[in-house]
Amino acid sequence: MPGGLLRALVRHAGRMDAPRAAKDRANLDLLLEQLADVPDEHRRAAFVCAAVLALPDGTVHGVEGRVEGTLQRAPRGSNGFGYDPLFVPLGDTRTMAEHSDQEKNAISHRGNAFRALLPVLRAALSPSGS
Asked: What CATH number belongs to 4-125?
């Protein structure tokens, strides 16, 4: 899960990359196996993205975007990759793979990060620079 944090698997927290399709299914199966004995209340996870803007004057602005959720016991949905079929955002009942592209973009960790960085970018590009 690019940018994914799996709290129940501290030793595995972080990134798992693709080449997608077959590897995604293998990663899902491995994760489900490793979480088999983890109670539902401990299956919290988050997709996390860090975005950084480095300006020519040496100024660096960094932000974090995240979407919190839980990991299901079986994959659902077909519109996604990585851990999308297991990940249900908090406050929802559908996995990310059951969301439309538009719905996913509205709540995604990447979208949240770059939306947070947008005011900094606008200010840097404005004629007054502020």
From this structure: 3.90.950.10
| Cα torsion through 15, 20, 21, 22, rounded to 10 | -70
Q: What is the mean pLDDT of the chain?
A: 84
- Domain boundaries in the chain? 4-125
Q: Provide DSSP, 12-79.
A: G-S----S-HHHHHHHHHHHHHHTTTS-GGG-EEEEEEEEEEE-TTS-EEEEEEEEEEEE-SS---SS
d(CA 39, CA 97): 22
Contacts of 53 (CB under 8 A, 6+ apart): 60, 61, 62, 117, 120, 121, 124
- The answer on pLDDT for 59 being more than 70 is yes
Q: Which two tokens stand for residue 36?
A: 């088999």
Distances from the Cα of 2 to the Cα of 47, 49, 90, 128, angstroms:
8, 8, 19, 37
For residue range 66-76, what is the model confidence (pLDDT) as tens digits? 999 999 999 99
Spatial CA neighbour of 87 closest among 46, 38, 29, 35: 46
